[in-house]
Amino acid sequence: MSLPLSGLKVLDLTRALSGPFSTMILADLGAEVVKVEPTPAGDMVRQWGPFDEDISVYYLSANRNKKGIGIDFRSPEGLALIKQMALKSDIVVENFKVGTMENMGLGYDELSKEKPGLIMASISGFGSKGPAKNWAGFDQIAQGYSGFMSLTGTNESGPTRVGTAIGDLTAGMWIVIGILAAVVEHKNSGRGQHVETSLLASLMGLLSVQGQRYLSVQEVPEPCGNVHPVIAPYGTFDTADGPLNLAPATQAMWGKLCSILDLEALTSDPRFLTNADRMQNRHVLKELLEGSLKRRSRMEWTPVMIENGIPAGPINKLNDVFSDPQVVACKLVQTVMHPVLGELKQVGLPISMTHMEEGTSVRTAPPLFGQHTSDVFADYGFSSTEIERLLEQKVIHQAG
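Structure tokens predicted for CoA transferase (400 residues):
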């Protein structure tokens, strides 16, 4: 099987979500990723519920396709082992608090003296400089600090966090982009480099038009719930059996929507002639549209809208999503065998490539703590005698 990143060796020193998510993407694309976890209990996320047979579902979501090893991070010999492995790797990824890698003797400046071609990638909460550099990187704190929460919710609800750890996940994606750019640079010049992002930077990178509104015209956007901040009508509307998303984004679509709903008179109503007019009167417009939409169900309206060129779709719950025929047809869920859980379903890599066989992103299950320790150290050139000594002295941990 040919995978795009085959041949790249990644030492994964990350924990929780942002870092493990980034290294999982690299692993999905074929990089050899060794996940290093501290003894005695491993990645902190292993203690976070919910649990499937005592295995953290949180952990399962971000650690497939990796080899897992356990090392005593508090032992000088353990840190020396990590350094040896780093110097034999192409990429080192970490998401400790700023300064921790340097305190362990594993900072980029030190490692790059011995291996100038090394790529190191770091994710922090708020960046490696500035007054907040030492703040712990927790997603909801970053969502609030970045302004992201101020855009989410309604005036009634107040600021609302996004329903997943969007700062962690996007930081993981941004750092992968930086890593891949560094890999290309290394191929061209032979130079390594230190790639950095933060939860704060990742979320500010997603502010899009809302951020530009402030930078250009000093507008401070208010939370607008499920309606578009600058287009009307565009958002969530009630039907006979629940909410439906509609996106008639052009003037032509607006006219077509009125025709479908038998509301042609609205197209000549001075309150709704232009998008600016409709934005000014969006609340009364919503009531008028819902009066017609409530005649039929979400899934009755959806094909009608789509057939008439108006983007539309129901608001699904996850039980709807995972049984949806479109999701099934696109093979967005894949199955892998787990040593404890048996068949394990996972959301696969949401990328397809011409020369990457379909359905190959989920190949091996997230490892047990220390599952591959002996094999990995053998691959890195350690003798069986040395591996046995390290195990006996509890410098490293192998799953039983």
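The mean pLDDT is 95.
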